[in-house]
Design a protein that fits this description.
6 helices, 206 residues, PhoU-like_sf, mainly alpha, Put_Phosphate_transp_reg, globular, UPF0111_domain, DUF47 domain-containing protein
């Protein structure tokens, strides 16, 4: 750990942890959507929108703190990148739920549950990792595992696309379902961006 003579603003750690905990809430809502009746999905989407707004508030709080802090715990650009990537995850998850409702999807294709399971695991790992930013310890396994999960998400996404284009769906349905699975894939990518940013921070601080 690099030795510092100046005090550091520590509230960032709590705000990153809160943002990651909110993402866990979002991932649970995604899981809930899978088992919900079509009639119950609008209410789940409403709760997801509330979670996404809470995520926006958390991100704005980090940016406000960043702009008002003279000393930061690590590089300003990395704080901005980490906050933005966490916010992206919530945005993509909320978009996926909203699309399911707006498109009035009767049944999601087999394989979407695997996408959401990967996102749920990545959310748990991210929430567990954020408190370790205080010490920069015990983070290596986190970013390795999230990168592995993202590779798994890529494979699931490719299988889903092959399934959607096998001729069993009409063209309009393919377009709707493809947009949903693509957004879920973007959420997996965003988790990897968070992990890569954490790795960058840890390397700089070592």
């Amino acid at each position: 750990m690099r030795f510092r003579l100046t005090p550091r603003e520590t509230s960032f750690y709590d705000m990153f942890a809160a943002s990651a905990d909110n993402i866990v809430t979002g991932s649970k809502l995604l899981m809930e959507l899978l088992g919900a009746e079509v009639s119950a999905r609008a209410e789940i989407a409403e709760r997801m929108r509330a979670a996404e707004h809470a995520g926006d508030d958390a991100t704005h709080a980090i940016f406000h703190q960043l702009n008002s802090s003279f000393i930061t715990p690590f590089d300003r650009e990395d704080i901005y990148r980490l906050a933005s990537s966490l916010d992206d995850i919530m945005d993509f998850m909320e978009e996926a739920v909203d699309l399911v409702v707006l498109y009035q999807i009767e049944q999601l294709p087999k394989g979407v549950e695997q996408q959401i399971e990967v996102l749920s695991r990545a959310a748990e790992l991210t929430a567990e990792a954020m408190p370790h930013l205080r010490t920069m310890e015990n983070l290596t396994e986190y970013w390795i595992e999230v990168n592995r999960l993202e590779n798994q998400a890529d494979q699931i996404h490719r299988r889903l696309l092959a399934h959607l284009f096998n001729g069993k769906y009409d063209a309009i349905e393919v377009l709707k379902l493809k947009q949903i699975v693509d957004v879920l894939e973007e959420a997996a990518d965003a988790f990897e961006h968070v992990a890569n940013t954490v790795e960058t921070i840890a390397v700089k601080e070592s």
